[in-house]
Amino acid sequence: TGDTGLLGCCCFFFKGRKLGLSSWAPAARNIGKVQNELLDRLSQADPGADGLKPKAPIEADCFNYESLLRMCEGTKCVLSCVGPYTYYGEGVVRACVEAGTHYVDITGEVDW
Asked: DSSP E strands: which ranges in 2-75?
């Protein structure tokens, strides 16, 4: 993910409990990058009363359907910020449908 999920992760880290979450975990094809560029930085911060620390990151690649399915089978809801959705989104939606997992995205792509 171009920004390694920075915005979504910070939102859940600092406001997750207030948003009604009981737990969350970032998912990415490159776990090392997520760990080094994001989670290591957040580990030094305090999420405060409204926030929620993440669980271990989940390895999932938009071009590896089995990894998407494993991710979806282990969660209740996927928030996708992957765009462009016409290129990266369909496999995630398919895996959510197959696993019975709720799906939310931030797309503004009318054609998708």
From this structure: 27-28, 58-59
- Residue 103 Rama label (left phi>0; alpha psi -120 to 50; beta): beta
- This prediction's pTM: 0.86
Residue 39 CB neighbours (<10 A):
20
The one-character DSSP state at 29 is S
User: How many helices (H) and strands (E) are present in the chain, helices listed first?
Assistant: 6, 4
Each residue's pLDDT tens digit, 23-33 = 999 999 899 98
Residue at token pair 């390694």: 4
**CB atoms near residue 80 (< 10 Å):** 20
Give the separation between CA 15 and CA 64, rounded to whole angstroms.
Answer: 31
